[in-house]
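Figure S7 source data.
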Amino acid sequence: MSVILAIESSCDDTSVAVCNNGKITANVIANQTIHQNYGGVIPELASRVHQQNIVPAVQQALINAQVTKQDINAVAFTRGPGLLGSLLVGVSFAKSFALALNIPLISVNHMHAHILAHFIDDPKPNFPFICLTVSGGHTQIVLVKDYFDMEIIGETLDDAAGEAFDKTAKLLALPYPGGPLIDKHAQQGNPLAFKFAEPQIADLNFSFSGFKTSILYFIRKQEQENPAFIAGNLDDICASVQHSIVQILLNKLKKAAKQYGINEIAIAGGVSANSGLRNGLQQTADELGWKIYIPAFQYCTDNAGMIAIAGYHKYLKQDFVGQNVSPMARMEF
Ligand code: KG4
Ligand code: ZN
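Tokens for the predicted zinc ion complex:
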């Protein structure tokens, strides 16, 4: 029997979850809207808002899960990677909470947790599977051999896929985070209206910085001829950019599946909420006979539910850390 409290504070969402014997019974996410005014996450503001949100989020999670502090057997927390000031709030809270209740601490890697979110609901993937993890900070293709035996077989050499969405949104004067807004406009646009060249990157790696620049030049050129180009074509621009990003991701995923002879394919991370990627993956699966796994929306973007399930699998192995643990902005995979 185990009841695990999990804390996620790596970026701009303060999230607290409860995992009761492998089932997520609470997943509270306090989003920080303050960053919308700045076009990106301001680390100093993020830490301050985590500090304000963390205790109310914990109280709400306990209420939602219908447990008391005394029922908790262990505290799992995101150790990294992420913004150091943000991580410090969650890690310090977790350590104090565990110390006060005299219960063990479980350290979780945020990128592992995005993948382990697939073990929250059914159907669960079978090992080995391939996971495309696409978020605001990372783009990785991971060979997942077991819960904590994972190998990065491809990754971005520069920007992440989420950044490609967010930076394009910024060019289009859409507020941060732009990914969900591009997705919304894309649903009303023509994905083939404009063409953007696919970057030619070796192996299973990605590059999005040149892609982003090509969109910038394209928009500048169009605006010279028609100053109202963005306003008049917003849906088509969003649909075309989204289509291009999704094709880049799916092409590498196809290559990885073929190279490793694996047809159990998962997606994870904030960009896995994208409707174009979800539909494109389904289509590819139908064509190639893949068995695919797509997390529920609440477990795609940053959330403590994924930290809780990762914590649960570490709890089963009694894999704990001491009170001298500290957060890591960069963390080995
Ligand atoms: O995993 P996540 O919540 O945080 C990180 O660990 O980075 O991912 C956030 C990223 C942002 O870049 C956001 O724009 C993107 O995920 N995102 C989306 C969608 N929902 C979130 N991108 C495209 N379409 C979406 N529907
Ligand atoms: Zn994340």
